[in-house]
Amino acid sequence: MASPYLGGYRAPKEVESNYSKYDTVVPPTMNWYIFTQYVLLLLLTGFFLFQVNDLDLVAKVGVSVLII
């Protein structure tokens, strides 16, 4: 049986003024790589969705695998 007292309210601790949760540093080349991959995938997906009725089964599976 559960205890009738479950701990009640506990106020959060004060956060220090100089506290930083994280500071992610990403090189510009990595940003460009990710952006390029995103654009290529977006173009491939758009092509696939607009041409899906004209593609045969092998092409549909192939492009689907590339997208995934």
Describe the structure.
- The structure is a single chain.
- The chain is mainly α.
- The chain contains 2 helices and no strands.
- The protein has helices at residues 28-51, 57-67.
- Helix 1 (28-51) runs antiparallel to helix 2 (57-67).
Mean pLDDT: 88
Detail the poorly predicted runs: none
Portion of residues in beta strands equals under 5%
Largest sheet: none
Structural class: mainly alpha
The strand count comes to: 0
Indicate the overall shape.
elongated
Rg: 25 Å
First-residue to last-residue Cα separation: 48 Å
- Helix-strand string: HH
Helicity range? 40-55%
Q: Provide a count of the helices.
A: 2
Write the layout of secondary structure elements.
Layout: H1 28-51, H2 57-67
Short description:
This protein is mainly alpha-helical. The chain has helices at residues 28-51, 57-67. The protein is elongated.
